[in-house]
Design brief:
This protein has 13 helices and 8 strands. It is an alpha/beta fold and 372 residues long. Helix 9 (265-275) links the parallel strand 7 (243-247) and strand 8. The two termini are 34 Å apart.
Length: 372
């Protein structure tokens, strides 16, 4: 393809997990509106996501679970047995009006992206990245697992080396379980140490298919850069992937309420820029992120990075209006800092790299050299 493609949908506009849920905030609509305000969609770049059909979702999920998810949306509730069996109707995975159609749209977007990438290129689906979903149950706000579905489409095309890189603040347990021991897949995850789902420990290699780098609380840009340069990029380069799936969760930044990492959005964009030339196919997904301003700014910057657009020091008025119009009913930290409405790029957060992180990086580096 000649230019990167953006996959979006209006289903994300106005649908939410409920007022008390962390995903009550607008995310994908903010990214779409910011990119339009910046003039960053060339003709033909924006595609509307299809909704994956139930049969297509069975590439990973069980038919019984898909039927349960559809019934829950139709009925607006679940039985106690369904709640127990499929983890639907819980605080994390609540009942809401679009609870099948919305995740099926995200999954449809990621599967379409993999199809479009059969001959190479770059596709961005910010509604994707739901990496906690399991074949027969929801988990961690994720009803379906679109990264797994996209990777399975790549494998169905005959690819034999797919790298999955995940920098969400939470470990990608659903993806790890799906491809443990699969020599065709390399999974690399950075995530906050000791945070839910409490998987992805340093010694966990998912049967030889994964590299996990738990980041100590408070890790900032310099610590992440060490992990990027000494673990992530060498591992991806050594694997020589035919495709890269990059889960770009926005919850590892300092302002996010669900982690205690201290990254800026520069960390995400710099890694993305480095990955762009490392495989002929690149699929970029969203993921976590629970502060509406930081998510919108970070994911809009992802699209700018993919296209080589310059990010201005000060946003034009139309883009400022998008950010200034956001609300966050669950906010408890006082007024919104002005820079979150007037800029996209964070100021870098430099800081010391902890001895604990240095030790973990050294262990993974030694392990990689042993494998090589």
């Amino acid at each position: 393809m000649d230019q990167p493609l953006f996959i979006g949908s209006e289903i994300y506009r106005g649908s939410s997990y409920g007022a008390k849920h962390p995903l009550s905030i607008p995310r994908v609509p903010t990214v779409i509106d910011l990119c339009r305000a910046m003039g960053w969609f060339a003709p033909g770049q924006y595609l509307s996501s299809p909704r994956a059909k139930p049969r297509a979702l069975e590439l990973f999920h069980t038919a019984e679970y898909i039927r349960a998810l559809q019934r829950a949306e139709r009925d607006g509730g679940v039985s106690a047995a369904t709640r127990e069996r499929h983890q639907l109707g819980t605080f994390s995975n609540p009942i809401y009006p679009e609870m099948f159609r919305r995740p099926a749209t995200a999954a449809g977007g990621s599967m379409l992206a993999a199809d479009l990438l059969a001959r190479g290129g770059v596709v961005y689906n910010p509604g994707g990245g739901t990496h906690h979903g399991f074949p027969d149950h929801a988990s961690g706000f994720c009803y379906l697992n679109d990264p797994v579905l996209a990777i399975k489409v790549f494998l169905r095309q005959g690819l034999s080396r797919v790298a999955y890189v995940d920098i969400d603040a939470h470990h990608c347990d659903g993806v790890a379980a799906a491809f443990a021991g699969d020599e065709r897949i390399l999974m690399i995850s950075t995530h906050e140490a000791g945070r839910w789902p409490f998987t992805g420990g340093l010694e966990d290699d998912a049967g030889g298919s994964a590299i996990n780098l738990p980041l100590p609380r408070g890790t900032g840009d310099d610590g992440f850069a060490m992990g990027r340069d000494e673990v992530i990029l060498p591992a991806v380069g050594g694997f020589r992937p035919q495709a890269i799936v990059f889960q770009c969760g926005a919850d590892a930044v300092a302002e996010d309420p669900l982690s205690r990492l201290e990254l800026t959005n520069n960390a995400h964009w710099t890694l993305l820029a480095a990955l762009m030339g490392m495989a002929p196919r690149l699929l970029v997904l969203g993921g976590g992120g629970y502060n509406p301003w930081t998510v919108g700014r970070l994911w809009a910057g992802v699209w700018a990075t993919l296209n080589g657009y310059e990010i201005p020091d000060r946003l034009p008025a139309d883009a400022e209006d998008v950010l200034s119009g956001l609300t966050w009913p669950r906010r408890s930290r006082g007024p919104t800092p002005p820079h979150l409405c007037t800029t996209l790029r964070d100021r870098p957060r430099r800081g010391p790299v902890s001895d604990d992180l240095r030790r973990r990086v050294a262990i993974l580096t030694a392990r990689r050299k042993a494998w090589a």
